[in-house]
Structure formats: C-alpha cells, structure tokens
Amino acid sequence: xxxxxxxxxxxxxxxxxxxxxxxxxxxxxxxxxxxxxxxxxxxxxxxxxxxxxxxxxxxxxxxxxxxxxxxxxxxxxxxxxxxxxxxxxxxxxxxxxxxxxxxxxxxxxxxxxxxxxxxxxxxxxxxxxxxxxxxxxxxxxxxxxxxxxxxxxxxxxxxxxxxxxxxxxxxxxxxxxxxxxxxxxxxxxxxxxxxxxxxxxxxxxxxxxxxxxxxxxxxxxxxxxxxxxxxxxxxxxxxxxxxxxxxxxxxxxxxxxxxxxxxxxxxxxxxxxxxxxxxxxxxxxxxxxxxxxxxxxxxxxxxxxxx
Amino acid sequence: xxxxxxxxxxxxxxxxxxxxxxxxxxxxxxxxxxxxxxxxxxxxxxxxxxxxxxxxxxxxxxxxxxxxxxxxxxxxxxxxxxxxxxxxxxxxxxxxxxxxxxxxxxxxxxxxxxxxxxxxxxxxxxxxxxxxxxxxxxxxxxxxxxxxxxxxxxxxxxxxxxxxxxxxxxxxxxxxxxxxxxxxxxxxxxxxxxxxxxxxxxxxxxxxxxxxxxxxxxxxxxxxxxxxxxxxxxxxxxxxxxxxxxxxxxxxxxxxxxxxxxxxxxxxxxxxxxxxxxxxxxxxxxxxxxxxxxxxxxxxxxxxxxxxxxxxxxxxxxxxxxxxxxxxxxxxxxxxxxxxxxxxxxxxxxxxxxxxxxxxxxxxxxxxxxxxx
Lengths: 307, 373
Prior knowledge:
The structure holds 2 protein chains of 2 kinds. By secondary structure, chain A is mainly alpha-helical. Chain A has helices at about 25-30, 35-60, 65-85, 90-120, 125-130, 135-165, 175-200, 205-220, 230-240, 240-255, 265-300.
C-alpha cells in the first residue's frame, strides 16, 4: 500500500464511523456473495424499483383524470350504444370489464414499454448496470410496481362502472377466475418487460411502432366487444395478445353460462395460452437484456445517457 | 462497529491494473480512438487522479473499469477481478459518482430515493432506512430529507449522489468530475467527504477525474496526465512538477539588503538571485521591504542562505517556495493548455446553481490555498 497523502489522518477509528457500515476484511471478501445473498439482493431490488411506482400513485394524482375519468367516458359511450341497441345485458358488463382492463394495457404500453428508454436518458440505466443486482430484478420491479398501481386503478373503474351501470356478474369458478386474472397480469407485464428491452434496442423506431399499433391492438383485443366476433382476426389476437386472451377468459368466467362471448377456446385453454405467453415474453425479455448489456459494452452507447 | 485494522490480505492485488488498454469507438467516417494503449496501476489505498481535457479518454477509462464498457484491446482488472469476465464481483465492491449526475426519480424525496438505491445493494428494509438517515446526516442534507429530488439545487443533488455512492461501503470509488458545476462551498464539502471516507478504512481506493488542477494537486497521492487517449506522465504531483523544474525557486521578502541581491547570488548553492518587484533594488514600495527571487540548486541550499542573511544584517519577513503548477506540467507535456476545453465544458453543462458562484479553476485554487494557510 502506498504511503498516502495525509496518511496519519487515515488511520481507522475504533469508534463507529458513519463512513463504515458493513466492514469487510478485503475486497475479495466483499466480492464473495453466497447464492442466498444474491437472491435476497435481487428480491430487494424488485421491491426497490417497484417503490417509485407506488409513490407515484400517491404523489401524481393526474392519473385520476387520464387513466380513470377519460377511459371511463369511452366505456360509457359504448354502454349507451349497447343500451340503445337493446343488446343483451352482459354486453354492458363486457364493456365495463374492458374499460377496467384498459388501465393495465395503457400502463404496459405507455409506461412500462418506454420506461427503460427513459431510464437511459435519466442516467439511471448506467447506475443499474453498475449495481450488483440482476437487470431482470429491475424489470420485474417496474412490472410489479406498475401492476399494483394499475390494479388499483382498474379496481376503481370496475367498481364505479358496476355501480353506475348496474352490472350483474355470474361467477361459478372463483379460483379459476383469480388464476386467469393473475396469469393475464403475468403475460401482459411479461410483454411489457419485453417491449421495454426492445425500446432500448430500437429506440425511437420502437416508440413509433407502439404508437402505430396502439389503436389496432385496442381494436383486435376486443376491449369493448367480445373478441370472438372478429372471427379470424379475433383468433389471431387470441394467439398473440395477452390482453385479448385474458379479457376473453375473464369475460367467460365472470359471466358464466352466457353464450354471448362467442368464445371458441375454453377459459382453461386460454389460461394455458397465458402461461405460454408469460414464459415466452419473460424469456425474451431476459434474452434481450443480455443482448443489451453485450451491445452496450461493445459499442458504448446503448445504455449511456445521450441528452 | 469495529473496523478491521489488519492489512489487506489482497495487498498483492492492485486496486487497478490496466495493461495496454485501448478503446476504439465505431464512427463515421473514421473510428475514434478514445484510449490508445493505457498502462496504469493504482495501489490499494491510493487516491489517484486522472487529469486531462475533454476527450482525453478519462471517462472512457472509468467506464471500462466500472464494467460499463469493454476494452477494444488490452486487459484491465479491479482488485484482481477482470473487467470483462468478473463484472459481478467488481460491481459488489465499487461505486461511481459523476458530476452532473441526474440519476433517480424526481418525484421521490431524498430519503426515499436513497432507500430505493439501498435495496439495489441488498440492504434490508429497516437497515436501508437506518443507513439512509445516517448518510443524509453525513452529507449534510438534513434539511432536505423529505424534499423532492427534483427540487434540489445542483450542490444538494451532488451530495445526494455522493450519499448514494456510499450506500454499499465500496472498496473502490470512481469519481468522475465530482465537483463539476458545483459552487465553491459544495465543491469543498465534496472534497472533504471524499477524503474523510477514504481515511476511515485502510485500502479504500479512489480514482478521481477532474478538470480542476488545484483539486487534483491537493487531493491526489498520484496522478496521470492524459491526453488523446494516452497517458503522458504518471507520478505524485510533486514529482510531475519537478519534471518541469529541477531547481528550487523561492520568493524571499527581506526587511533590508544593503549589499544588494548580488551578495546573495554569490552564496553557495545559489544559482541566481534577482529582485522581482518594486524598484530596481527590489524594494516593495508599499511595505518598504525587499523582494527577491532566489533560484537554488535544491531545497537543501536554503539553510546556508538563511544563515548567511544574518551575516548580511537582513531579516526575513516572508519566505515562499515558488512551484510550478500542474498546468505548467500539462503545458510542458501536451504543448497546450486546456482552458478552452474547460470553458466549453462548463458552459455546456448548464449546471450552475442559482445564486452561487460556480467553482472554477481559479476559485478552487484560491480556496485550497486558503485552506492550506
């Protein structure tokens, strides 16, 4: 060790120093982490990254306007159309359910997908990559934070819609409904995680693609009508878009016995589809994260703040 | 909490060991060579400075060492861990703070933001809050504890960044222009924190980049002068300054010197003696003293000169050693100064905090000189 400048002042203090928190005997010891510590750090990182999302719920109330009141107006418009057409009463419920699910979709498309790209511009991405946790923990934290936030918002829309428009649900299989809902969330936020990585890789092009795809996805997902009515398009949507699959399964289970969903896949089958989507999307997100880190270290630009 | 006083058993491993490190960025029409065969070793416990203008390659080197970037050629390790393959180990023992850093989320309060980052380093929930409060006190952000991050001034923001950097008790701390854009007092606070943090545990190592030569001169045990991706010189500040000046130069103020400066010039070890200000006799008009620039073969020659002055019936009013600055060294090595780069860089960041004088080379030097007095 070198004789450092002012070394007399650099002798360790026997008293507890605020500059020393978790003393280790050497850098080697500090770098040696057991698998349990790695796991715990990643779990805590998930909680840490979810935290700002939950704080945002309380601290940025603009979401009440943009994610509840405005979407509720769209939902109401469809309710009045169905009422004017004297459609079966389940249709009102379909629309209210679709309105509630919009909160998740908007969260995934506009917050989750663009989040990592935004993090890059803030300089956060570099800090995340230099911290000892897995980047998957950050993605999962973003997803779980967004999921909890959106569940709260969706719950409000569902509650208000149900009360205002007198929706009557008919549920026979509560556990399956809960399971499908959870799978819907995992598949949807798995898609969000994958999109987030794509946004970092493709940047502005991915943003434009999302904007272009937003309305078509809304349409083929059947937010305001049973997706099966779309025939071939509906089938394609069910095969690729978690919003379409999850919403169709939830409608079938929330309005048991109704033939108006016109679904050609059972809720159990759709649950399996959601499981497959979850695996594919999260697997792709993990794969893309590795590519991002490799490319970032090679070209020096991908995760570096540019603004 | 006891601190291990035992020497590092990793003493064999250098804190930083870079060998022939090169980095080329793809660019059109021609690739950009950011680093060109850097050889650098930093020992555990050193505060090592990288001094150079914009585009010299300082930040690129830090990015390689912090695992954000791969070297195009050569090898580098941090405490024995390879920067290409052992990224996880390096990330567990290091942290980095950059000047003008805006990481985190503006809607969070200071305390919340630090807690969030504490989770990324695996601190427990309560443990994280405890540590955060401790660091807030340490960096002097008590009054901003529950203030939103977006409302912090530049100096407060940098204190927050510094607290973030200390969350994991790093063994090696990379500070990339940490005082850039800070006002004088915030820059001073940052420097003091840096030194105090390093002093707390033997073996803690700092790699500091800075535009401020006086800052590097004052803080660093050793430094490297970098330009255009190459290290031009490495050494202690004194060694580097000695390169451009082999003689010892003193500025001597005497109450009288009846026999003239020629009497001094004839003393052993004196290369030259000349009046430096005032009238032809070297007299300071205001204070009625004599100012002499004395050039000696080395510092050891000063003793006989002082003794001889008594014989000449002259009394010393003040004595100041005149040393070349690191800027002199830089100009000597590079063939140009980097004042222009500095100006452009500062103006480009827009980081000056309202109502405060931003630190600049001159103010840093003034302040450090004041401290040493």
